[in-house]
Design a protein that fits this description.
Elements (H helix, E strand, L loop, with lengths): L1 H12 L3 H12 L5 H10 L5 E3 L2 H27 L4 H5 L7 H28 L6 H14 L16 E3 L6 H15 L24 H28 L3 H22 L4 H9 L1
Helix pairs in contact: 2-3, 4-6, 8-9, 9-10
């Protein structure tokens, strides 16, 4: 029985060996250090994980903002001390060189500020890195030891780590992770939280197609139960008050699941409840 269960777990947990050999074999063919590490990241898009530098970005944005404020004050002083009112009312005739210089500096500073603000905003909206992917990179670095520790410290800033590759359905991803946790519970070696073989010539990646298909099946089954379960139960119950209670409980459960596993907004939750 244990041997059968082990075969089932291995079938679900790992990509086919040929895929592992092809993808990771490419990475291992590169020299140790950054060449091999970057090749490893390229084999699995969710491993494209980088630090966002929230505090540094906020500080730079504040400094750029203050620079514009200082230039704005200088422009206001020049306007207040302008002796020729014609220059203020007709820009084509403006001969005040100080004002022209400040305006050019303001244009450059504002463009720089807007560009950085938009770039920082995009970074803030990136998806947070999956904890399991971060752990996988930690395990690889510790297992190979071919990178300087200080240069991989970025992985310790979990709150600022983002994944550049867009992930699939967040609900499905969480469900797949739960299934993996269940399947690897009996296969976890001591000191290795995810059952990854850390030997340089043997690296395994979880979340194969079998896990993906199993996750989709579980998701479809859960949705079907949520949609049809209350209908079946209400047909078996005669009391009107009990039926209302069942409907209310099912709606609350449905909304709780949507709120927990997705990023639904308040309006979307309201529409889901109404339909």
């Amino acid at each position: 029985m244990s041997a059968t269960w082990a075969r089932v777990r291995n079938w679900f947990l790992f990509h086919p060996q040929s895929e592992v050999d092809i993808e990771l074999g490419k990475a291992q063919s590169f020299p140790d250090g950054y060449p091999q590490y970057t090749a490893l990241l390229a084999t699995h898009s969710p491993w494209m994980i980088f630090r966002r530098f929230d505090k540094v970005g906020a500080r730079i944005l504040l400094l750029k903002q203050d620079k514009i404020s200082v230039l704005e004050e200088k422009l206001e002083d020049i306007d207040q001390n302008e002796r020729s009112l014609l220059f203020l009312g007709k820009s084509r005739s403006d001969r005040n060189e100080d004002r022209k210089v400040i305006l050019q500096q303001l244009e450059t500073a504002i463009n720089n500020y807007d560009e950085f603000a938009q770039s920082f905003s995009r970074a803030l909206n990136l998806q947070a890195a999956n904890a399991r992917d971060v752990t996988s990179l930690h395990n690889w670095i510790e297992g190979t030891g071919c990178l300087y520790e200080a240069e991989t410290a970025y992985l310790s800033h979990q709150d600022e780590l983002v994944a550049l590759a867009p992930q699939a359905d967040n609900t499905l991803l969480k469900l797949e992770t739960s299934i993996e946790d269940f399947l690897i519970r009996w296969r976890r070696p001591a000191g290795n939280p995810y059952g990854i073989d850390l030997r340089p010539n043997q690296v395994y990646m979880h979340a194969g197609q079998h896990i993906h298909h199993l996750g989709r099946m579980a998701l479809v089954l859960a949705v079907a139960l949520l949609m049809m379960g209350p209908v079946v139960v209400c047909n078996l119950v005669n009391a009107q008050a009990t039926r209302i209670a069942i409907i209310g409980f099912s709606i609350a459960t449905y909304l709780a699941m949507i709120s927990s596993f997705t990023k639904a907004r308040t309006l979307e939750l309201t529409v889901a409840a109404a339909t």
